[in-house]
Design a protein that fits this description.
It is found in: Cell membrane. Its main location: membrane. This protein is α+β, with helices and mostly antiparallel strands. The chain folds into two domains: 44-127 and 145-187; 194-337, Rieske Iron-sulfur Protein (3-layer Sandwich), CATH 2.102.10. 37% of the residues lie in helices and 14% in strands. The protein has nine helices and 13 strands. The protein has a five-stranded antiparallel sheet with strand order 3-4-5-6-11. It has a four-stranded antiparallel sheet with strand order 7-8-9-10, with no helix packed on it. Helix 4 (49-79) packs antiparallel against helix 5, helix 4 (49-79) packs parallel to helix 7 (163-183) and helix 5 runs antiparallel to helix 7. The longest helix has 31 residues, at 49-79. The N and C termini lie far apart (109 Å). 25% of the residues are buried.
């Protein structure tokens, strides 16, 4: 006990009086030495050229699969119809195009990445290097050293020696961007005159969207708003939404003396007027109807159209009136169209006259 006390008290006795007054603390030296880097263990590819060749072929195979998957992506995009539905276990009924594009592009990217990883783990140099911290701005000597290390790394990667890996890598990298280029096809082809034509034809009956029955003049009451579409459209058709987006109309009945535009009156029947209900701003349905003023309001950006005056724009960002559809009554007493819209319906576009 006494020896322990003496050894414990010997340390403070070696401190000067000033150190004792300042409360100096003695920190013991670290008893654990830096073990350093463990000895380097060579990979099988470093000592066996046959193993290196197997790794090279594996990397090349992954790059080739990436190339084939990219070609499959392009072929799928070009040949599979966009509306084709296919049963694929365990996903059920899915879009064949989406499934093909996702699987091929995913395979192309995965194999490209897996090939690069396998290449680096089996063929590139795996010698451990310790880099000391240095100022942010490198000195000329450091820059020269970086260039030298880069050249050495390129040499150790064996990209110059492994020609099979190099060529297949270049092929995979060259083909993968084509997937993005192919997607640009969705920007075309140019619509041509498709925007100028809808499903309305001379003699097309006006079909009530709610009852799916042809409309008669007596079905349209003063102050009401009725939604209609041309006969022949079916909710189950694959292009129904594309057709109705251009052909949808609204019918209003206004007292003939309240109609301000003579052409609108002539294109109607006994005060029944048919206008496109697609707003000419960005295509929202302008179907909020104000009975007293005969104004139609688009709820998206408040564009307001006067249906009693050729559907001209009273307020809002819409650029032109709602196109009117010329209608009449056939021998059976049903409302029918005399042709298509004189102006293309929907939002403005630069080709519009």
């Amino acid at each position: 006990m006494s020896s322990h006390t003496e050894s414990h008290n010997e340390v403070p006795d070696r401190l000067s009086s000033q150190e004792r007054e300042e409360g100096a603390v003695i920190v013991a030296e670290d008893p654990f030495a830096d073990p350093g880097m463990p000895p380097h263990e060579h990979r099988i590819q470093d000592i066996d050229e046959r193993a290196a060749k197997r790794s090279e072929r594996t990397v090349a195979l992954l790059f080739v699969v990436s190339m084939l998957a990219t070609v499959g992506f392009i072929v799928s995009y070009a040949l599979i119809p966009i509306d084709q539905i296919t049963y694929i276990w365990p996903f059920g009924d899915v879009s064949a195009l989406n499934f093909a594009l996702g699987s091929t592009l995913g395979t192309a990217l995965f194999c490209l990445g897996a090939g690069a990883v396998h290449w680096s783990r089996t063929l590139m140099s795996d010698v451990e290097l310790v880099g000391e911290r240095h100022p942010v701005e490198a000195s000329p000597e450091v820059k020269a050293q970086v260039l030298e290390d880069f050249a050495k790394g390129a040499e150790e990667s064996q990209i110059g020696r492994r020609t099979l890996v190099r060529r297949t890598l270049y092929g995979a990298l060259a083909l993968v961007p084509l997937s993005g280029l192919v997607l640009l096809r969705d920007l075309g082809p140019a619509p041509g005159d498709k925007l100028f034509h809808t499903a309305w034809e001379p003699g097309s009956l006006l079909i009530n969207e709610n009852t799916m029955q042809p409309l008669r003049p007596e079905d349209i009451t003063t102050g009401s708003l009725t939604h209609a579409m041309p006969e022949g459209l079916d909710f189950h058709d694959h292009d129904f939404h594309a057709q109705i987006a251009k052909a949808a109309i609204m019918l209003v009945r206004i007292e003939p003396e309240d109609i301000k535009d003579q052409q609108s009156a002539d294109w109607g029947h006994e005060g029944i007027l048919a206008y496109s209900k697609i707003c000419t701003h960005i295509g929202c349905p302008a179907v909020l109807y104000e009975q007293q003023t005969h104004h139609a309001l688009c709820p998206c950006h408040q564009s307001t159209f006067d249906l009693a005056d050729g559907a001209r724009v009273l307020f809002g960002p819409a650029g032109h009136p709602l196109p009117q559809l010329r209608i009449t009554v056939n021998d059976d007493g049903f409302l029918e169209a005399l042709g298509d819209f004189e102006e293309p319906p929907g939002p403005s576009f630069w080709e519009r006259g």
